[in-house]
Amino acid sequence: MSRLIVDLKCLKNKTTRKYNNLGNVDDGNGKKLGSIHRSERFRTVVRLVDFLFCESSTDRFEGFFCKMVVRNLHCLNITNGEEEMCFYMSEGLFSAHKDDIMLISGQVLDVRIGLWYGMYQSLPIFEIIDFKILSKNDVRDFCEFVRSPIGEKFLDMSNS
């Protein structure tokens, strides 16, 4: 099950803390352990800012075509309203949505992402597994739910 995150700053902080904890693990001789860490899944509802196409041969080699730049929703009254993040996207996923006329800057998206830590304590990578464009009614219903007492309890359980 993926966890619902409504504040990108919270997502960054969670992964930074975990990465720092994993990065401080060594084999007792001062060498970093070279293990693959368990991936995690998250779901977030965000606004689309832009796409940045990967120019680096490393990014292209890893199978990433572009980065989706996203920002927190304003309707949730989050103090980090202008917080942005980049999620990597494969060419196949981008191609499946590139002709959608609703995929424009400012559009609200429901994005499922995987967080991969990689080997040898490499930096975490956020990869889009799937996303869908939300209608105005979907966004209104989501914001009402998240601000309700039941929604707050759900977020607490999801983020514990």
Question: What name does the CATH topology carry?
Answer: OB fold (Dihydrolipoamide Acetyltransferase, E2P)
Give me the secondary-structure category: alpha+beta
What is the CATH superfamily classification?
Answer: Nucleic acid-binding proteins
Q: What is the percentage of strand-forming residues?
A: 25-35%
Q: Outline, from the CA principal axes?
A: globular
**Largest pleated sheet:** 6 strands, mixed
Write a short abstract of this structure.
The chain is α+β, with helices and mostly antiparallel strands and 160 residues long. The chain has a single domain, classed as Nucleic acid-binding proteins (OB fold (Dihydrolipoamide Acetyltransferase, E2P)), CATH 2.40.50.140.
